[in-house]
Amino acid sequence: KLTSLALQPVITPELVEGRVHLKCSYRRPSSRLPLRYVVVWSRLSPPGKKEQIQHDTTLQSFSYIEMNGVNLRLGDTVFCTVTAFSRDVPEPQSLPEESKGFYAGIKFVPESLQIAEDGTEHVLTILSTVPIVCPGHDDSCKITLQLSTDDLDSRFPGPPNIALSACRVELPCSGSRCAAATLAVTAVTDFAQDGNRVSRIAAQPVGRRDLLWRAYTPRDVKVTVRDLPTGNCYSFTDPHIITFDGWRYDNYKIGTFLLCRSVSRAFEVHVRQWDCGGRRSATACNCGVAAR
Q1: Which pTM value belongs to this model?
Q2: Is the per-residue pLDDT at 181 higher than 90?
Q3: What range does the record give for the signal peptide (predicted)?
Q4: Which of 8, 35, 36, 222 could be a cystine partner for 112, CB 3.0 to 4.6 Å?
Q5: pLDDT in tens, 209-261
């Protein structure tokens, strides 16, 4: 009986004669019957429907399709569906079995981030699911990605709310395998109560002129930054001082004073006060500030 053979098709990338191919491999059943296989390749089109792009009939337990940048491009999610039938008799056929979707291109892991303005570094992994073809038939190659960030919230036209540990990463490749790169993403502590904001990380391949890569833009990474309340302290007029914990006092002295110093990082604020009371009263006013 051919109804269910557990063919379990799987898609893997491979370099064949210097060109990028996808390979659909499946289990050859232990049945003594000589079998033939029909392999249907399809890709997920933008409206979310599967579009057939290749139809193979083979005696082998695998099938190839080339990523030529025309009918199969970077950024496509690809499937292969396999059906088996007896070599001598076209009927009956087994039940068709479909592979998991294979995304061909640059992937970010995780695909989105939820972080907070607490200084924590979050690791973002960047990898290429397909090998890189090198000019000059070199066995070792790389893909270079230029990274950028921007704020998706139109209320804040200023700088983005996230910082990256690098603006450019390289993914070295050898044969059909490419190494992954890691990146640290941190939320910018802006000392403002501006609510949760959404930013994105974009990547653009640079230095690639071949048809497969030059028209390809990887998917953006959505980063949601959770706003956290920050402490405030004040020194104003002649001068009245309010500390982080709400303690209030006055300082009428003239001179340079240490206003604030962090015990965990290189951060401190100095303030300079001069005489502004004249002859009638001894009063000092802020006249300068220095921050590190």
Answers
A1: 0.76
A2: yes
A3: none
A4: 222
A5: 777 888 889 999 999 999 988 788 999 988 999 999 999 999 989 999 999 99
Structure tokens at 221: 């990474």
Bridge partner residues of 22 (DSSP): 13, 65
| Calpha distance 19→9 (Å, rounded) | 22
**Nearest alpha-carbon partner for 143 in 179, 171, 112:** 171
Measured CA to CA in angstroms, residue 70 lies from 30, 33, 210 at distances of 38, 38, 12
d(CA 81, CA 99): 6
3-state secondary structure 199-211: EEEEEEEECCCCH
Domains in the chain, ordered, with CATH? 10-103 (2.60.40.10), 106-226 (2.60.40.10), 234-291 (no CATH)
Average pLDDT, the chain: 88
Q: Sort strands 50-58 and 35-44 into parallel, antiparallel or unpaired.
A: antiparallel
Per the structure block, which two tokens stand in for 179? 């190494």
pLDDT, tens only, 112-162 = 999 999 889 999 999 999 988 776 655 558 889 999 998 887 676 667 789
